[in-house]
Amino acid sequence: PACGKGVGAGAAASDAASDGAQAGDSATSSGLDALSGAAQQSGARWAIGFAMALLAGLFFGWNFNMPILLMQCAKELETDPKHDTVAGGVSCNPSMRGHVTMNPFNYVFSHFCGIALTAVVALSSYILVHRERAYMPREIVMPSVLSGVMWGIAQVAYFEANKLLSITIAFPIISTLPGMVALFVGFVFFGEIKSTCSRVFALLGLGCRIPGVVLIALSNSTG
Q: How would you label 162-185 residue by residue, b for 16+ Cβ within 10 Å and e otherwise?
């Protein structure tokens, strides 16, 4: 009987060890599945963010297409009253005389209205999709308004710069310098770019941007 009890106890211990091993394997598998799922989710979020950044860049590049085309049409009609072409979806013909102007400030209001409408549609879509999960703390309202005012002033200056320098000169300078300022502010005031690799890439970027802006400015002054 004692031998039978020993055998039974040994079998029970073996079964318990087997169950424990299976539970450990299951936990390990669950952990690996969770890590794999998190990695896939992170990769998907990165891809979506990258696509959105490209889309934002395209919109930024197309920002002044319509006003610039209308200003060019006004200039061409002034030099050639019978000028008749179609460029960028804009028909420039003698019937446009009196309806287009080379003054960039005449396009500011309509331009801002389009941007405001786009912002309202984007915010409304965000609220409809996320509903109660929408992140809109009151603390960011006034900084957002102040940021919008600063952006509006800069955008008006951008219109004038396009007129005085031409868009081929103004666009590279205006699209480069804000990034350099943001890099400086982030590094000095917010402690960003902590790793050595990040700092190396930042310096390489500055090494390409600064000479480019200087050469663009010099080409305009000599031209």
A: bbebebebbbbbbebeeeeeebee
Query: 92 — phi, psi (to 5°)?
Result: -110, 110
CB under 8 Å, gap of 24 or more: what pairs does 172-177 form?
172/212, 172/213, 172/216, 173/213, 173/216, 173/217, 175/60, 176/209, 176/212, 176/213, 177/213
Separation in Å, CA 143 to CA 137, 139, 149, 177: 11, 8, 10, 22
The pTM assigned to this predicted structure is 0.64
pLDDT tens per residue across span 4-37 = 444 444 444 455 445 544 555 555 556 556 666 6
Could you read off the pLDDT of 153-171 as tens digits, one per residue? 988 888 888 888 877 788 8
Tell me which H or E stretch contains 92: strand 90-92
